[in-house]
């Protein structure tokens, strides 16, 4: 099942992240070990609508729709525009710079948010954004 939502063009990256986690069991286990958190992404599109996706790097190494898997809570939530998320996963923008510019809002465990960038970088090599 695709995680892409047409009103959110950059959401295709969640399919790429999911595919990269499923492709290699040892890489998935490594990502869980390094991430050790449930990351939620709330994206806002040009129409002002928001939608959320999560990356569970605490237990399962899965990606899905919503703020967290059933029965779980996100450790950190990153809120940004669909356009900026596309730039971030495409390697055209750094999360730290988006945060400093006020374009990326982080709630929850801010230190865990810093662990997300290497995982996104791995997906960049597989993504065609």
Verbal overview:
The chain has 129 residues and is of the alpha+beta class. It has helices at 12-23, 25-35, 82-89, 95-100, 110-113, 116-126; strands at residues 38-44, 50-56, 62-65, 76-81, 104-108. It has a five-stranded mixed beta sheet with strand order 3-2-1-4-5. The radius of gyration is 13 Å and the shape is globular. The protein starts with 11 loop residues before the first helix and ends with a helix.
> Count the strands?
5
Uncertain segments are none
Instruction: Please outline the major beta sheet.
Output: 5 strands, mixed
Q: Which structural class is indicated by helix and strand composition?
A: alpha+beta
Shape: globular
Q: How many helical stretches? A: 6
Average pLDDT rating: 91
Strand coverage percent:
15-25%
Termini separation comes to 19 Å
Q: Which radius of gyration do the C-alpha atoms yield?
A: 13 Å
- Strand order of the biggest β-sheet: 3-2-1-4-5
Order of helices and strands: HHEEEEHHEHH
Question: What is the helix content?
Answer: 40-55%
Summarize the topology:
Layout: H1 12-23, H2 25-35, E1 38-44, E2 50-56, E3 62-65, E4 76-81, H3 82-89, H4 95-100, E5 104-108, H5 110-113, H6 116-126
Give the tags.
129 residues; 5 strands; 5-stranded mixed β-sheet; alpha+beta; 40% helix; globular
A few lines on this structure:
The chain has helices at residues 12-23, 25-35, 82-89, 95-100, 110-113, 116-126; strands spanning 38-44, 50-56, 62-65, 76-81, 104-108. By secondary structure, it is of the alpha+beta class. Strands 3-2-1-4-5 form a five-stranded mixed beta sheet.
């Amino acid at each position: 099942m695709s995680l892409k939502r047409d009103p959110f063009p950059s959401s295709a990256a969640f399919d790429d992240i999911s595919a990269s986690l499923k492709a290699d069991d040892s890489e998935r286990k490594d990502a869980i070990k390094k991430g050790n958190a449930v990351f939620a992404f709330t994206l806002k599109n040009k129409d002002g609508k928001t939608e959320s996706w999560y990356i569970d790097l605490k237990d399962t190494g899965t990606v899905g729709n919503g703020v967290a898997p059933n029965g779980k809570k996100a450790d950190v939530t990153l809120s940004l525009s669909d356009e900026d998320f596309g730039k971030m996963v495409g390697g055209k923008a750094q999360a730290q710079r988006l945060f400093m510019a006020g374009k990326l809002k982080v709630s929850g465990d801010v230190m865990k948010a810093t662990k997300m960038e290497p995982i996104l970088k791995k997906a960049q090599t597989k993504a065609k954004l």
